[in-house]
Amino acid sequence: MAHSPPAVPPGAPEQGCPIRVEHDRRRRQFTVRLNGCHDRAVLLYEYVGKRIVDLQHTEVPDAYRGRGIAKHLAKAALDFVVEEDLRAHVTCWYIQKFVKENPLPQYLERLQP
């Protein structure tokens, strides 16, 4: 009996594959690798105080927009703020929108005015 090849070859665009967010604390960024490792979506942050981070910028390449990737980045960053008992200043317009659409108490209580 012959074995058929996998339906989606390794390194193919993640149609139907789960989105995996990676956190690089040294570079202060969250990333999602797209189409292998050539493209990536990123959320950048900086510490602006001892326990305060500024969620500064989210960027998803044009070809990957509209797939919910930025939502995963925003959720990962806000979960990080909660888990590390930090406060967050939100410069990024997309994360501001995400919080408005997902007004969870654990996020709202961490936001700086």
Automatic annotation (TrEMBL):
Entry's InterPro entries? Acyl_CoA_acyltransferase, Gcn5-rel_NAT, GNAT_YJDJ
Bias (Pro residues) occurs at 1-12
Q: N-acetyltransferase domain: which residues?
A: 22-112
Q: Which residues form a coiled coil?
A: none
Top-level taxonomic group: Eukaryota
Which residue ranges are recorded for the region named Disordered? Answer: 1-20
Q: Which PANTHER family match?
A: PROTEIN NATD1
Indicate the family of this protein.
Belongs to the NATD1 family.
The name on file for this protein is: Protein NATD1
